[in-house]
Here is the input.
Amino acid sequence: MIIETDGISKTFRRHDAVRHVSLSVPQSAVYALVGENGAGKTTTLRMLVNILTPDRGSARVLGVDSRRLARREFLRLGYVSENQTIPDRLTVAQYFRYLRSLYPNWDPRLEAELLARFALPADRPLGKLSHGMRMKAMLAGALSFRPELLILDEPLSGLDPLVRDEVMEGLLHQAEHTTILISSHELSEIEGAATHMAFMDRGRVLFQEPVDEVRSRFREITATVGDESDVAGDLPASWFVAERSRNTFRCVETAFVSDAEVLQKLILHVGAVGNVDVRPMSLREIAKSLMRAMRTARPQ
Amino acid sequence: MSGNLRIIAAILRKDLAVLWPLAVIVVLLPVLRSDAVLQNLRNDNLRAGTIGISVLATMLLIVSVMHQDASASLRDDWLTRPIPRWTMVAAKLVFIAAVVCVPAMATDFVSALADGRSAGEAIAPATAVSHATLGAMLAVVVFAAVTSTLLEAVGALVAFAVAAILAQAISGSVLPDGKGILVAGAEWFSFAPALYLPIVIATPVLWLQYGRRRTLLARAIVACACTATMIPVLTPPSAMFGVMRLLTPATDVGRTAGAALAPGCFPRIATETESGDITDEARRLWNSDERASAGPRAIAFSTTSAPTGVPRGWKAMIGFAQAFFVDASGGVLYRLQGASAVFGRPDGVDASRSATHFWLAPRNAYEDAARRSARLRLKYFVSLLEPVASTEIGVNGRRQYVSRFGYCSTGIDASSDTVSIDCFVRGRRPALVTARWSEGADARETMTRPDYTPAALPMLSAPYRLTLSRFRDSTAARVTLTAYEARAHVERSVDVRGLLGGPSCSASLTSSNTYGDQP
Here is the structure.
């Protein structure tokens, strides 16, 4: 594992921002850390890159305790965050000249390619770039030394769809052999690339597994139900965001095995059902439904 | 170039690219505040403004360069770049040295050369980074290290300044025997924490902040240090003097020295005219707050004391004097107000022959004390100084090096008919330096302010200047300089029967020059 955490926790003034988080990110994975704003994603990533120190637990990144990350590891690790502060008064060219002198493994050709691909104006101060252009500049600055591990904290937040696609394309094109850990509350942009996914809520990781497994066990169920059917009773623990409107019953099955099993569960818990639609879900839909479920379950 | 040097160079280039306008100003400021320029500024406000702007710009530059790569931040780009944290600290310190210290040193050096000093002498003040400068710069570095924005740093500095002003304001009222900061010669005690604590805490704070990223702990240390710098302000003079005594080995002279008062009723100081206006003398001696707290028809008088048991040639310097009305059992009924407005402390400092102090008490405090048959207690905090070196220098404008005194020269100001003696000694100067004419009948003597900084605690490498006036017809061509060192700091009390110099002295005879008859 290129990243392995063991029950890391962080508390800010009695607020548990991260609670006993254990993550395992395999080499070469594109690992999506998903959760609502405030779920603890940023704090977790900051602990991984030693910006914050865990109060409890430990993390190993690139085989090193995260608290011991030093120059040698940062030569192999890129980090981009939407909140990152970069020297605004430097021009793009000055910023890259500065970064170049920090990395013996800097690839000037890749830098030139990325600058051209992202159409970054060399003579414009970083502070005068749009948010999207800044993110592109930071991404280029994190890719040009060909890092083994790239940690991205909401890199696409606030970008318009066109720029988002450009950034993702650039990222995936250049980072073929790079392990990517990306946090997001919006998964559509990494839908096709993510190989693993972890879902965080209120500082905890609720699950983490390969994306294929997530996709295979999540289904959206829509069924036509009769007037006499009752959905108020106990429902299976694997169902959530269950709702009925008129003659339609909807829920998300999180432990899908087969259509037949779904039908059996529906008959058992909802009563007689008519048409049943069991539909695979996209990662974005899965994430959205999980967030809705967590929000509903949260005490008001 | 090695890896770390390459990184330092890259950080310096980046910081300079961002901060060059401010850096240019700071590089040029030492020229503006050099003696050559300041002496031409006849407007005091302009002079003060030049120095103020220079200090502010330097502070702003130090804070800005530290915040370019803030360590207390959670967002700064450099935190996840391959930059060893101590390399970052080194880069910042190199920048400060190159932009702030080196230009200042170069200006001092050139300025000294332009004053006609030799290169050997000019290099001394140029390279003598004083503890005050170093302390002040490190204080700003430390404040900047534990903050991440200019607003935070300014907020922290303002909070500290407000706390210091409050401490200063309340110290006079809460201390049982007044403000300790007024003890003559003990300025080192008052300013040592502010000068040395930044030097002492800089390394641990930078280590915690950059090495361990323990921002809260680093901030706690800075807060504790800020609090500690206020301790002297809240230290009563007696305790301050006690510290000086502890630091000075006891000598026989410390045990035998005493103080005696001039006999007779004390000379009266008129505080009001017959029409009820404040007299000029009272105005000169006490400020309006002090006069107001004494109220109308206040009692004011002077006391003159002379040292006893002090070896010939030594100096007895009064650091602080206090006067109390005390009851029969010695309990303090009232502390009289000394004349600090004129002298900066209750009286002139040199008591080698005699010293006069001026006291003010409210009429009701006096009457209450008189009813209780109280007596007056005078308390003197005296430092005894032994002459340790003496030398003669000619009034010829030539600069020369004299052991213990440093580089000294004399210059004649024909318009005021005075001779100024300018000296510079690297590190600690003697506790006291006096100057007098070597020949002729003119026995007048001038002296520096006393400075009892312990030898182990060199404070400031600062020049000192003595001005000696001469008679118009004087042909004296040589000045004798004498250096003294403190050998004992003693506290002596003198109890006077009655409140105003004797049992027969009374405040009822207000039209007289004294409070009663002379013996």
In short: Confidence is low (pLDDT under 50) at residues 342-347 of chain B.
